[in-house]
Amino acid sequence: MTETVVSTRKPRPEVAVLVEPPGATTVPRRRNSSGGRLRALDGLRLVAALMVAAYHYGGRDGEVSEAWGGSPKEQFPTLHEYFAYGCLGVQVFFVISGFVICMSGWGRPLKSFFASRASRLLPAYWVAVVLVTAVFALPMVAYKAVSPSDALVNLTMLQMPLGVDRVLGVCWTLWAEVRFYALFALCVVLPGANRRRVIMFCAGWTLAAVISANAHMPLLDIVVMPEYAPFFIGGVGLYLVHLDRRDAYGWGIVAVSWLIGQHYAVQGLWHAPEAGGFSYRSSVGIVAVVTFGFVAVAAIALGWLRWANWRWLTVAGALTYPFYLVHEHLGWVVIHALHRGLGLPSAATFALTVASMLLLAWLLNKYVEKPLTPRLRALLAKAR
User: For the chain, how far is it from start to end, CA to CA, in angstroms?
Assistant: First the structure.
């Protein structure tokens, strides 16, 4: 979608388009007297998506090794160590999502909130599921497609809690986003968003996440997502700072979320150096990338990047969600065709694969999202 992002520091904005999951976090249109736009947030989303793509293509072992014909460590002897940090692009996405979902839900009724979320998420997602399933079913493709039954379940976006094989490897992040949307909708949007309610939501969720960390209660873990909650909550706190940069509670939410978030990131991604390991992420490097996510969104929230107002950033933001959906599995197919089929060098294969996935994302945005999103939103908004 091509809507631009317009910021406001007033707590009663009118929203035209809402936010989506990693890669799908299109910023809503908001107007104020200054006409300032948050196009920098679109650019940051694309940066996060490219980080994840670098991780999937050259920062990990696994099925991508089949595409390269060997470990990506052999293809990128030096860069693979940096690509390994690309998985933290997901945490950056979550911070962005917390910011824009709070912005989007402020002053919006629950029905409208649901209609905007579903209409923006589902069209490109449905097509991506069908497309990847169809490509993987081709005889010349080395990867095995999921069963027809599992593919149908994937269309519901509930394959993760049902324990069904995933068509899209990245859909685990969508499941985290959906749970965040549900929590925010029930606790903030339904009763009506205001500063006090948002602060209580952040405080309550933080406390519940900390308690669940050692409570050994799987259901509680599923609901409050202790390892990801700090990033969503930190983004919400940054929206409070966007409304009022002197908001001590907002800054407190951001600080606590960063402290807890970096802990979970290090805990989940750091390991002692080992000769047989694919790569080694230092704790300092992990903390640095997490800090980058918080600082970058903070700079946007405070208006420091208002100068980054180029129109192409809006296009970049529109491509992020479909790119995120298709880049991993279809990227493996392209890498195999270019590197093993045509014999292109690793660097050229990497660049052309990213470019081809961006082109596919543009096609999905133009021919799927633009025509179907407004129609589905209108249909859901009218439904009783």
Answer: 27
Q: What is the pLDDT of residue 274?
A: 77
Place of tokens 């202790």: 226
pLDDT in tens, 349-362: 999 999 999 999 99
Return d(Cα 195, Cα 216) in angstroms, integer.
32
Please provide the DSSP assignment of 136-174 as one string: HTSTT--SPPPPHHHHHHHTTT-HHHHTPPPSSTTHHHH
- Verdict on whether the full-model pTM lies above 0.70: yes
Predicted confidence (pLDDT) per residue in 61-72, tens digit: 989 999 999 999
157, 24 Cβ separation under 8 angstroms: no
SS (H, E, C) 211-266: HHCCCCCHHHHHHHCCCCHHHHHHHHHHHHHHHCCCCHHHHHHHHHHHHHHHHHHH
How far apart CA 167 and CA 132 sit, in angstroms, is: 7
What residue ranges of the chain have pLDDT lower than 70?
Answer: 1-37, 275
Report the half-sphere exposure of 330 (CA within 13 A, side-chain side).
Answer: 24
Count of beta carbons in the 10 Å neighbourhood of residue 141: 17
Q: Is residue 168 a contact partner of residue 143, using CB atoms and an 8 Å limit?
A: no
Alpha carbons 165 and 216: distance in angstroms, whole number: 26
Q: Distance (Å, rounded) from C-alpha 144 to C-alpha 333? A: 12
